[in-house]
Here is the input.
Amino acid sequence: MINKVNSKTNITKRHLLLRRLARTGEASRLELSRELGISNSRVCDLMQEMLDEGRLVEHAGGPERRGRRGVPVALNGQFGHILGFDMEALRLRLVVVDYAGRTVWQKRQSLSETDTREQLIDNVLGFIESCLEEVRPRFANLMGLGLAANGVVDVKRGVILRYDSIPAARDLPLRDLVASRFNLPCCIEDNIRCLTLAEWNHGAARGFNSFICVAVRSGVGAGIVIDGHLFTGSHGLAGELGYLPTATNSGWEILQNLVSETSLKVDVETENFELTPGRASLAGEILGAQLASIAVMFDPQAIVLAGGLMAPDGQIWPHVGMTFRRLALPEIGERVSLLPAQLGPFAAAVGAAYRCFQKLHPVEMHRH
Here is the structure.
């Protein structure tokens, strides 16, 4: 029994070390020991095991002795590769990231007619299959596939409960459909949470402990990080910002019916779109007002704005910023930064791959 407990504890500690390196890159054994609260000797033993397996590499800057605590270690990108898939109303995307989290391949295509459930499934599975035909000859060890799904998602069951922009997606068991078709370990997560993870690891939110990521794409969603943890809510549905009730001159409407690519009838990736000044101003003011409310509620370090409509040199951004500063509680508005996302349109797919990495290296609640 003691050996089983020790083995389980060591696996958890291995996974903690791997997650830490995946999130922030290389680190020395001593840094890892201090940060994670694992003894120096245990960290050295576990690092040596994973170096021998090829999971890790050392970045020695000279004739350093192998295993020396000051020598930084990092994930070995060539150990394997993980797929990340992102689905929204207008388009599909897929990336391949190496074990160290670097994107090494990507592809996108428009999402064609989805009037029926069968059409939707055929489009999604057909796109993934065509990508795998290109990817498998190049990357031998495909370790898993992370799915970033739009709409209201039941992560535990792997089901899209509903997606207003695609009615055919109601009660769609996307995770199981993909896993059974392609015989890969598969997980699913809300696509804006995936985007949030990507920006947290390698983008605008790197180094933050509490922030909100708001994405305006075909819909509107948010990822919430509080005290270093991705907040999902009591029912796993936190961040459905697109359904926030918003007052208009003609009554109440939900936010994504006022501010999104779908509601504004633009596709920011395939056309040189231009909004009328009035529409840009109204969309920016509506969003800025809601961000002011969110800032007062959560008092984050920053709010990261993602999506093509939220480009800092675009038409909407100035109106968002001016409205936010005007309406937010001054003591909060002066301290909370509005930051543009850094990782571009494939960020949610990259975040889905990282979510899959987390699922492949699960960490139970554990006190050191």
Observations:
- The radius of gyration is 22 Å.
